[in-house]
Design brief:
Blueprint (H helix, E strand, L loop, with lengths): L12 H10 L2 H12 L4 H14 L26
Length: about 80
């Protein structure tokens, strides 16, 4: 995916590490390819929200958005 470094506030590091470690490089690449084929942000958010749920990371989705809107893609550190 071409990402070899990240910059963020230190309190966010544990969450970022947990997400990164929850996905294989192959799975992350497959998600990226699928997202690149989508035409709008809502579809991409839904894809990534589903991936979080499948990885057991439901707690990273904001409560008010759990049913209708997934986590922003940048919070997952995946380019969109």
């Amino acid at each position: 995916m071409g990402i070899d470094s990240l910059s963020m506030a230190s309190p966010r590091l544990p969450r970022a590490k947990r997400v990164i470690r929850s996905f294989t490089q192959h799975h992350a690449h497959a998600l990226l390819q699928e997202a690149l084929g989508m035409s709008n942000a809502t579809a991409i958010r839904s894809l990534l929200n589903g991936a979080l749920r499948q990885a057991g990371l439901e707690m990273l989705v904001k409560a008010k958005h759990r049913k209708t809107m997934p986590v922003n893609a940048e919070r997952l550190l995946l380019p969109v």
